[in-house]
Amino acid sequence: MRKLVVTGVALAAVTSLSACGKSGYDRARPDEFAVARQAPLVIPPDFSLIPPQPGAARTQGTNTQGQTLEALFGTPAPRSQAEAGVVDQAGGDVAQPGIRSAVGDPQTNVIDKGQTTRDIIAAPQGDGQGARAVTGGAAGATQATAPSPAATPTPGATPQP
């Protein structure tokens, strides 16, 4: 038994040490840096460019912000006839230029629509099945619940007389 263990350990040592040898691995491989020849450096043509004069006007357009926006987002798409008609009917061509600064002005008239409008706007999104409305005063408040799903009409159904 002892002879078998010694033989197994010796065989494992020879097998593991054989990976360290270099016989058979010394073949010539191509050099990956020598495969492609590097092109020589070329001086670009002059194009007869002259340096700008100090204080002279720019030869390109002066709207750099517009050029930046055009490069990032492209030019605006033209409106279709239908879209242009809707915008014209809505008065899009007579928009007030300073409307954004006038909205927060203390002189702007604001209509208070009440708590109900605020509640509607702040209501969570959903199908409204769990909606509840409180009617009446705070002391004698009654709750009205949303109709059950069976009572809601289905689209395309005709009412029965």
TrEMBL record:
Q: Which InterPro entries match?
A: DUF3035
- Which residue stretches does the UniProt record annotate as biased composition, category Low complexity? 130-149
Segments for region (Disordered): 77-161
Q: Pfam families, alphabetically?
A: DUF3035
Q: Which UniProt keywords apply?
A: Signal
For this UniProt entry, which residues form the secretion signal?
Answer: 1-21
> From which domain of life does this come?
Bacteria
Q: Where is the composition biased (Pro residues)?
A: 150-161
Please report the name of this protein according to its UniProt entry.
Beta-barrel assembly machine subunit BamF
Species annotation: Sphingomonas palmae
